[in-house]
Write a structure and sequence with these properties.
Number of helices: 4
CATH architecture of the largest domain: Sandwich
CATH class of the largest domain: Mainly Beta
CATH superfamily of the largest domain: Golgi alpha-mannosidase II
Structural class: alpha+beta
Radius of gyration: 16 Å
Shape: globular
Strand order of the largest sheet: 3-4-5-10-7-8
Number of strands: 10
Largest sheet: 6 strands, antiparallel
Length: 177
């Protein structure tokens, strides 16, 4: 995530190769769940650099779902504006927001153990404060949709769910108008 963050300061996401790798990283030795590997790879030019013969059926199904989500959101990911959120150091959160601010895809990752026992608030940036948005979690699982104003999301924030370290969620926002 830190490499993607630095890259995105200078280049658009559409030119950043972002690939799903093996469960055990050959560089760091770190093990990551397929949900995390695929969720990170969504935000770029998604690719796969893993021997699928070594993956479980469950991980292959998760990867198929991630590729379907990427295909559904590719136009936004490749044309939207990246907006970083001000968060605690252990959280990496950003959005890709449509030019007309009618849609956004938000990534929120817990990259290290949280400092607090309870999840904090995620204050959004870059939305239209005068619009209502339908918001739902789309990765790694789907959630019910809630309707909330851009103003509330940016001023008051949204309570994060409990996340495990080195995991993430992706939220989809669509303006109601």
């Amino acid at each position: 995530l830190s490499i993607q963050k630095g890259f995105a300061q200078f280049f658009p996401l559409e030119v950043m190769g972002s690939h799903v790798g093996p469960a055990t990283c050959h560089i760091t030795g770190r093990r990551l769940a397929m949900e995390t590997r695929a969720g990170v790879a969504l935000f770029g030019h998604m690719g796969v650099e893993v021997d699928l013969r070594q993956e479980s059926d469950a991980d292959k199904a998760t990867l198929r779902a991630a590729i379907a989500l990427y295909k559904a959101q590719r136009a936004l990911i490749h044309s939207g504006t990246v907006v970083r959120f001000d968060t605690a150091p252990e959280i990496d959160a950003f959005a890709v927001i449509a030019a007309d601010r009618s849609a956004a895809l938000v990534s929120c990752a817990l990259v290290a153990s949280p400092r607090a026992a309870l999840p904090g608030l995620l204050r959004f940036s870059g939305l239209d404060c005068d619009r209502l948005y339908r918001m739902r979690q789309v990765w790694p699982t789907a959630s019910d949709t809630m309707t909330v104003s851009g103003d509330v999301l940016m001023a008051a924030g949204w309570t994060l769910p409990r996340l495990q370290p080195q995991s993430l969620i992706v939220l989809e926002l669509q303006a109601t108008d």
